[in-house]
């Protein structure tokens, strides 16, 4: 008897431990009592996974998994109900697997008979992970790609790596993510050495059954940096040959390799500009090497500093517009959603208006570099939806790829903050279907991750939905931007003016608060950044009378005496927003306390502690910014009355 009690106790502890630490993400399906009966049309590693998931977790009777070649070849699926049970059909194995996760997620309510296809063909995570295990802008531990635990000579990897990669692949597949760029865009040339290519091959082998293709970020100067050529000039014959040979080696190891992601001539990275060549010449040289294997180049438009003195938000268009139509057809230009740098709110990036003859893809940032990192609860779906709303439907539909900078590390709960998992989840769901609403996704994620009681779902969906606006309010209301502490980008530093930094990093360069007023004049009387927008946005933003007030200080410099449409002075309006942001977080703290009975102890306490910290930080933003701007305002007003 004592043994039985001990066994039950031990079992309870183990299952509790698994359930509480956040490691299982949103994949917490209840185990099926009796394994479901699954008919599989054909055998493959992917179909085995699909069948395994169902027999472990499906409670609704028998399921047939079929490959139907008459369906579109786009990884979409159809779940229909037949007298014998449920049938999941797709033209591809990966499509069947996506159908299985849809069935499990919706517990059968997704059996509609409708064909469900992804909006973007390539749904990509960009990891900013370095070979030494550190992660640029990573806030959840070290990299899950532990290169030193992969033995390229023996073709083996540690059990930890294999388990983690499998869980990572499964989580991605469950939300439709099908591509991963494994390393930082600030890329080490080392990634292209034979040893690393062989390690990448081993990773690709683990991810492949889950429908995930691997890509690499490459350093444009690699051939020279590795000592194989004298130059990295894209028009030099030997350089072209070097890349062609390298690509051949990669495809020999990884036949379904996806291609390259490139950050060139940006923030100190080498690029074609070093040899007076254009981005198109650089990208096309790589594209030519990849073309025979159907590989692609994702070439980033995140560039600044090459046009000295020009407003940073204009520089992507300045550098890329004239190259429109000059890229090979296997190049996609990857553009951040806003023209600056992943701020909590930016107007959309006008490069999407200016390059109509070149395939473009949006780059979102899932890791919350400027949104409280892994310490603030900020749900990003509403921000991404805001971007989608600016892009004409037709244009969005024509895009084939979308990328999100991952927030994943080797922390037990993967993302640092339990609620940051929601952003990984939301990215995948929106990449599959940008029409989904942020609320739907929040509701889905909360149900899967915590509990499905409406007393929990309603208030927590509301918290998630309001959290991004709260963050904008306490960090950068009314269109202020980039007043973050230097380097780490956490916390406020409105007086930031370090002489050794490039001007484009300085808070004072962005808020321009002085005796004359506050805000960045980007209208036609200022830097004329508004000119890069299509109508009606160009006129709307250019005119201070019509500029939406959430972008006021982004596009306009206003005197301290300026009145907003509600009659408040600009300083008064800023204070109202700072206060609103703080009181929202105060509300979240209280709300979460009421959720105690719906959440396990460990996650409850971890989220509580993060929320208290978020509140402290929100107050810091409010106090530091109010004090700083108010002192400038007071001085200015005083001078005027003298
Ligand atoms: O957001 C900025 C980050 C850099 C990053 C860069 C980029 C990878 O502060 O850390 O570098 O953007 O997107 O290239």
Your description of this structure?
The chain is α/β, with parallel strands linked by helices and 642 residues long. It has three domains: 93 residues, Chitobiase, domain 2 (2-Layer Sandwich); 231 residues, Alpha-Beta Barrel (TIM Barrel), CATH 3.20.20; 132 residues, Alpha-Beta Complex (Alpha-d-glucuronidase, C-terminal Domain). The protein is built from 20 helices and 15 strands. The strands form three sheets. Strands 6-9-10-11-12-13-14-15 form an eight-stranded parallel β-barrel. α10 links the parallel β13 and β14. α13 crosses α14 and α19 packs antiparallel against α20. The structure holds 4-O-methyl-beta-D-glucopyranuronic acid (GCW). 4-O-methyl-beta-D-glucopyranuronic acid binds next to loops. 4-O-methyl-beta-D-glucopyranuronic acid (GCW) binds next to loops.
What order do the helices and strands come in, and which of them pair?
Layout: H1 2-20, E1 38-40, H2 45-57, E2 63-67, E3 77-82, E4 85-90, H3 93-106, E5 115-116, E6 122-126, E7 150-151, E8 156-157, H4 159-174, E9 179-181, H5 194-207, E10 213-218, H6 222-225, H7 237-253, E11 259-262, H8 279-290, E12 296-300, H9 315-320, E13 331-336, H10 351-354, E14 360-365, H11 381-390, H12 393-398, E15 401-405, H13 421-432, H14 438-449, H15 454-475, H16 507-511, H17 537-542, H18 552-555, H19 570-593, H20 601-641
Parallel strand pairs: 1-2, 2-4, 6-9, 6-15, 9-10, 10-11, 11-12, 12-13, 13-14, 14-15
Antiparallel strand pairs: 3-4, 3-5, 7-8
Unreliable runs, pLDDT <50, ≥5 residues?
9-18
Q: What's the number of helices?
A: 20
CATH superfamily (homologous) name of the largest domain:
Glycosidases
Give the helix/strand class.
alpha/beta
* Biggest sheet record: 8 strands, parallel, barrel
Number of strands: 15
Organism: Palleniella muris
Protein name: Alpha-glucuronidase
């Amino acid at each position: 008897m004592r043994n039985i009690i001990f066994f039950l106790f031990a079992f309870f502890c183990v299952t509790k431990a698994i359930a509480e630490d956040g490691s299982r993400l949103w994949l917490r399906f209840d185990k099926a009592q009796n394994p479901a009966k699954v008919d599989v049309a054909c055998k493959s590693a992917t179909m085995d996974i699909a069948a395994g998931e169902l027999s472990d977790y499906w409670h609704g009777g028998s399921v047939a998994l079929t490959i139907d070649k008459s369906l579109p070849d786009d990884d979409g699926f159809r779940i229909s109900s037949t007298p014998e049970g449920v049938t999941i059909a797709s033209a591809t194995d990966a499509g069947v697997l996506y159908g299985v996760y849809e069935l499990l997620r919706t517990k059968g309510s997704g059996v509609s008979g409708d064909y469900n296809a992804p909006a973007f063909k390539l749904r990509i995570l960009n990891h900013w992970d370095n070979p030494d295990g550190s992660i640029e802008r990573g806030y959840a531990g070290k990299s899950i790609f532990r290169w030193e635990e992969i033995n390229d000579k023996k073709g083996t990897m540690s059990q930890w790596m294999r388990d983690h990669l499998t869980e990572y692949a499964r989580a991605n597949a469950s939300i439709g993510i099908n591509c991963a760029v494994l390393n930082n865009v600030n890329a080490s040339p080392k990634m292209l050495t034979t040893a690393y290519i062989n390690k990448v091959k081993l990773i690709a082998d683990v991810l492949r059954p889950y429908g995930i293709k691997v890509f690499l970020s490459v350093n444009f100067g690699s051939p020279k940096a590795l000592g194989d050529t004298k130059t990295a000039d894209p028009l030099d014959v030997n350089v072209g040959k070097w890349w062609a040979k390298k690509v051949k080696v990669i495809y020999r190891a990884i036949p379904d390799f996806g291609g390259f992601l490139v950050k060139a001539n940006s923030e100190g990275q080498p690029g074609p500009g070093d040899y007076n060549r254009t981005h198109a010449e650089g990208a096309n040289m790589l594209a030519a090497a990849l073309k025979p294997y159907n590989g692609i180049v994702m070439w980033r438009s995140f560039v600044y500093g090459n046009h000295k003195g020009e407003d940073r938000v204009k520089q992507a268009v300045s550098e890329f517009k004239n190259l429109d139509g000059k890229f090979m057809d296997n190049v996609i230009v990857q553009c951040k959603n806003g023209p600056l740098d992943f701020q909590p709110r930016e107007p959309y990036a006008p490069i999407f208006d200016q390059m109509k003859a070149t395939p473009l893809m949006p780059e979102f940032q899932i890791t919350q570099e400027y949104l409280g990192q892994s310490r603030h609860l900020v749900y990003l779906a509403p921000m991404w939806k805001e971007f989608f709303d600016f892009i004409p439907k037709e244009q969005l539909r024509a895009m084939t790829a979308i990328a999100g900078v991952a927030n994943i590390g080797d922390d037990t709960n993967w993302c640092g903050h339990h609620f940051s998992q929601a952003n990984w989840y939301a990215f995948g769901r929106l990449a599959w279907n940008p029409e989904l609403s942020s609320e739907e996704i929040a509701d889905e994620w909360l149900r899967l991750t915590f509990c499905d009681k409406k007393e929990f779902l309603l208030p927590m969906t509301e918290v998630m939905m309001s959290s991004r606006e709260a963050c904008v309010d306490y960090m950068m209301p009314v269109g202020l931007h980039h007043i973050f502490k230097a380097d780490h980008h956490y916390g406020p530093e409105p007086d930031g003016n370090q002489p050794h930094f490039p001007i484009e990093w300085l808070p004072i360069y962005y808020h321009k608060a002085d005796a004359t007023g506050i805000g960045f004049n980007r209208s036609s009387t200022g830097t004329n950044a508004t000119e890069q927008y299509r109508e009606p946005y160009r006129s709307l933003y250019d005119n201070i009378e019509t500029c939406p007030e959430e972008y006021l200080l982004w596009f306009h410099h206003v005197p301290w005496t300026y009145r907003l449409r509600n009659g408040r002075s600009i300083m008064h309006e800023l204070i109202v927003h700072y206060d609103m942001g703080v009181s929202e977080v105060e509300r979240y703290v209280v709300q979460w306390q009421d959720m105690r009975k719906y959440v396990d102890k460990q996650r409850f306490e971890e989220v509580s502690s993060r929320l208290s910290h978020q509140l402290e930080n929100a107050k810091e933003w409010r106090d530091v910014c109010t004090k700083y701007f108010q002192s400038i305002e007071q001085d200015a007003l005083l001078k005027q009355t003298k």
